[in-house]
Amino acid sequence: MDDLLLNQFLLLGAVLFCIGVYGVLSRRNAVMVLMSIELVLNAVNINLIAFGAMNQNIAGAVFALFVIAIAAAEVGVGLAIILIIYRNRHSVDLNDVDAMKG
Amino acid sequence: MVAQNLFFYAFAALIVAAAVAVVTTRNVVRAALYLVTVFAGVVAQYLLLAAEFVAVTQILVYIGAIMVLMLFGIMLTRARIGRDVALTHDTRWMGLITALALAGVMGYALVDAFGDDPLPHDTQVATVAGSNTATVSDAIFSQYLIPFEVVSVLLLAALVGAIVLARKDRA
């Protein structure tokens, strides 16, 4: 109980990841699903930084920065797509997006 | 070192509580504000691991830019400001089972693989020598230059794509 353990950060990342997965699976509002995906990406970043600190390798921080940049791109395109769905269907409820249902 | 553990568990509890609130609250705007709390708690964990450049980038990009985009998305899709009962599926228990099973498997695997491995002393914020910002920039602009350029092009493509998708007068 004196040093920080690697597993503290990894387990925190795992819990955050699972909460994000639950959000993606259970939310009906498309914007809320995007928010849950952000939780998942943050969990991954905690793991990258923790492993980088463990192995004393700067690659963890570098790839965390790449993940942050890609998350920004993903949110931009994702929100544009949600806006088109809203414009065409007047709803962001994922149960209403069923045009490809057989 | 006890202070670091206290800091870790305080912010870990904050992160988990706010993340649970994000996925369970019935209010869309409140979920966005809880998400800011999660991001801020993650910043604290980065600082604890002496990754201060990533922490500042997280504040700028996540709290500064992505959350503003999210709030724009909430407003432009005219989500109900206030309680909204139609925010979760009726079958959310399936998501709950999936998440709990995933948590069990990952928790077991992590405890089994890494046990009580301590982090090295000089990567913890109390004992680290100087800052690692210079090391990060050296790595990005030498070893990881090509991935960095690829990410730049990806961001440009996403920017153009978002504008093309969202504009109204598509010719």
From the structure above, extract its key features.
heterodimer, A: 102 residues, mainly alpha, Helix Hairpins, 3 helices, 75% helix, 0% strand, B: 171 residues, Four Helix Bundle (Hemerythrin (Met), subunit A), 6 helices, 71% helix, globular
Question: What's the gist of this structure?
Answer:
By secondary structure, chain A is mostly helical. Chain A has helices at 6-26, 30-54, 59-89.
Describe the protein's topology.
The complex is a heterodimer of chains A (102) and B (171).
Chain A (H helix, E strand, L loop, with lengths): L5 H21 L3 H25 L4 H31 L13
Helix pairs in contact in A: 1-2, 2-3
Chain B lengths: L1 H23 L3 H21 L3 H25 L15 H23 L18 H8 L4 H22 L5
Helix pairs in contact in B: 1-2, 2-3
What would your notes on this structure say?
The complex is a heterodimer of chains A (102) and B (171). Chain A has 3 helices and no strands. Chain A is mainly α. Chain A has one domain: Helix Hairpins, CATH 1.10.287. Chain A is elongated and about 55 Å long. The model of chain A has no long low-confidence stretch (mean pLDDT 90). Chain B is an all-alpha fold and 171 residues long. Helices cover 71% and strands 0% of the residues of chain B. Chain B starts with a helix and ends in a 5-residue tail after the last helix. The chains are: A mainly alpha (102), B mainly alpha (171). Chains A and B meet through helix 1, helix 2 and helix 3 of A and helix 1, helix 2, helix 3, helix 4 and helix 5 of B.
Provide the β-strand percentage band of chain B. under 5%
- As for the CATH topology of chain B, it is Four Helix Bundle (Hemerythrin (Met), subunit A)
CATH architecture of chain B: Up-down Bundle
Helix-strand category of chain A: mainly alpha
Indicate how many domains the architecture of chain B comprises. 1
CATH class of chain B: Mainly Alpha
CATH class of chain A: Mainly Alpha
Order of helices and strands of chain A: HHH
Shape of chain B: globular
> How many beta-strand segments of chain B?
0
| Gyration radius over CA of chain B | 20 Å
CATH topology of chain A: Helix Hairpins
- Supply the helix-strand structural class of chain B: mainly alpha
